[in-house]
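Example record

The entry below shows one chain as it appears in the dataset: sequence first, then structure tokens.
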Amino acid sequence: MIEYRKINPRYREPWSEKEIKLLETAIKYTNDLKLLTESFGRTAKSIEVQGQKLIYEAKTKI
């Protein structure tokens, strides 16, 4: 894990509620994965997974 964190410093770091709210707002304006990964300092996979969770939660609220 230490070696992987040299490449991806936020590897396995949990998402804070503030980050989740920011991502929720950001994906309303863009789906540019490269921009989101640079903005959040997360991997593309992490952004994808969290985005999918947000979409699923939004669908279940309807």
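Notes for this example: The mean pLDDT is 89. The radius of gyration is 12 Å.
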